[in-house]
């Protein structure tokens, strides 16, 4: 049992909201949600990874805490690079974004297993609705590297919509406005009491981070103008003032959601060549923040109107408005969207965890959930135009077959290219896959027919096949992005992930053992200092003996089990002596 939740031998599916700034996790058992806390007791995990000076992997809170002083060895916001060809330099190696992400997911897995007291092997991971096929594949790989069987991917706003549908029983049309650190997702779904049917989804690559950066840039310009310097000139391997300023700005942005004025103060953000320490100290008003947020607000409103148009609905057709994500706590964001729709947002569920909650009930939960395609999938024709096969917002799974014909006399091969995006021009869309069907019979233009079949599963993962109809010559493929990892690479990365996280946990245990030993040494010395004249000589000698043993072992700590044993003996001895009344 855990918090009223019965954890039997059934496989538990953990729902994970992998976020740009923070991540969260949840399980659902016995009709109850249970948020998984990090090992440090927080209900979220910062999406930050680092390596310290000893080469030890740091993940989450430990990594975020030292970012400014260890900037060159810290990585954040890697979610925004998922599915891209660009690698990330980490610990002296080039890593794909999914490899970095796996450290966060692996940390969540281990903390969840420690908290629940049983292995957690299955996961549903949320992704932005705007994630393309490459980014979704990369997310699946990250989960596999972390040791999960990824049961499904779920769009973040769909997961949030699911949470509200279950807990609030919202019958009708629900618009979810989900703004995270780096993405905005909007979904309009209909719930009838048993099934949640998404109607449209849309998204954009902006979010709370854009507002934080705008405020940071404002504070940076003000500071540099006042002091006649450039903060970039004071970045060193040991300290990055811009990261310190960003973190302080993030805190100020959050504070301005509940107060109209706050102060941003950083001691010694700059130390000049002459040893002069310069502090940053600036009062910021909510009105300043609102002005700097104008572009994000404008873009957000445009996306809401786009969703309504795609769904062929008016604002009056929306029965419930739901806000998700930290930035939606900002009064300006909330008020602008509420005013646009003429409706107050629903309350009662923490916007920071409702995506993780929804992910935990997506597979095998009490509500049936539909899925829709978030981007139009097209075949490229004339080498430049996109011919839509599966339009945006098509219910999934979907499969479409269409015939195309040769465009030149005696054409013996055909390049088949699939793109995703909304432009008629192929070059403005994202290329998913391209292959060549060879050995076509040499005939006049238009006489050779090629049948193309495109299918998309419920996770948004796609497959393609093509055949020339007169010869039945076939070619097929699952969409592999150029940075897709092989099964061998995933297995190797998984072992590396396991080893690094295991080593990290072992180092944490060792540090805790050393800290306990140092603490009990201090207590023993204090006891002798204060009550030496009242203690039995035998007790005093035993305390000193154990202190000397511990101090000797701590010079180069190796035998941690012995340190733990002597620490326990010394603590028991001190407690026994303190419980006696001989010194009163």
TrEMBL record:
Keywords: ATP-binding, Chaperone, Nucleotide-binding
This protein's name: DnaK-related protein
Family to which the UniProt record says this protein belongs: Belongs to the heat shock protein 70 family.
SUPFAM superfamilies: Actin-like ATPase domain, Heat shock protein 70kD (HSP70), peptide-binding domain
One Pfam family matching this protein: HSP70
One GO MF term: ATP binding
Signal peptide: none
Organism for this UniProt entry: Methanobrevibacter ruminantium (strain ATCC 35063 / DSM 1093 / JCM 13430 / OCM 146 / M1)
